[in-house]
Amino acid sequence: MCQRSIKKERDILFTKEDDICSERKLTQQEVGELRHKVISCYKVSPKRGSDLLEMLQTDVLSTGCYGIDELLQGGLHPGEITEISGETATGKTQLAFSVTLTTICANKHNKVLFIDTVSTFSAERIRTLFLESDRFDHSREQGMEEDDVMNRIRIAKCFDVYAVMEFIEDMRDHLENKEKDDNVYTNIKLIIIDSFAAIFSPLLGVTQTQGHSLMITLTRILRNLAKEYNIAVLMINAAIASKPNNPISVFSSTKSKPSLGMSWTFMPDIQLYLTHCIEDKIVIKENEGENNIQQDYVYTNRKKIEVIMKPRICEVLRSRNGQMGKWCIFYMGGNELFTHYDIL
């Protein structure tokens, strides 16, 4: 559709067939095939309740951080879209790398697809995390090697929304066509897009309806793909200013909010927001009975090297299935990531 400059589903579904053929220089057979593909993306297939329950119990993916897993009711759920947004330098991409490695190390067959829209993916950083972080010590002891880990991560460089949509459609074609002799997309358990905001922010505005339509369309395509093939989706979003503060946040000092506007707000299944842990937020936690929170925590790793860990806050802004307003404190520094409860 992108190659033929067809930007919206309604252009192919509700325009007369003769008009499409003449304007887009397509044959009637090609129009029919395009309509069939669009309809198949939105079709609803019934599932047994027992299958859904088994999926929830067995296929949840850990983020590698106990506190964040609790907020997510166990971790990233297949068939659902999880958004992580937050202020600059709060660890969004670092957390995405952590989820990537945790998923890979959980099962020797698991694969992760990382769609990089802003050149944030670093193979060297992933390699260093696996080799140096104490969190993956058990996997290394079990004989998992860095080559195996890196071979099960698929990276796609897509710098605009049309490239992402084309790539997702190609992925669906490969998954549907069982006869294709390749294993590029088999056993994909997690799709990460970093950053979702980068490909849509230039297209959004009061008078730019096409950008909002494309955003909703891509999200629906991803959700259908995730549900059909039992894949969890993680989207990394940016933050924008919110004056005088963010009314949804449980902290009055939060003066930012997720970007992409109101049309995006209710698209993900759960919306996590990361902020820097400042003094008044720590006081709130102390008033709830936990007074051991530190601004900086010095962690000594297995090599006896001291690592300075900085606290961050992760809170649930919105959730379809869980409780909003819940939050946790986690520490990040060097190659390590853990929650407040891990150091009590």
From TrEMBL:
Subcellular location: Nucleus
InterPro entries recorded: HRR_RAD51_Paralog, P-loop_NTPase, Rad51_C, Rad51D_C, RecA_ATP-bd
CDD domains per the UniProt record, alphabetical: Rad51D
A GO MF label: four-way junction DNA binding
GO biological process: DNA strand invasion; double-strand break repair via homologous recombination; reciprocal meiotic recombination; telomere maintenance
A single Gene Ontology CC term: Rad51B-Rad51C-Rad51D-XRCC2 complex
Protein family according to the UniProt entry: Belongs to the RecA family. RAD51 subfamily.
UniProt-recorded name of the protein: RecA family profile 1 domain-containing protein
Originating organism: Rhizophagus clarus
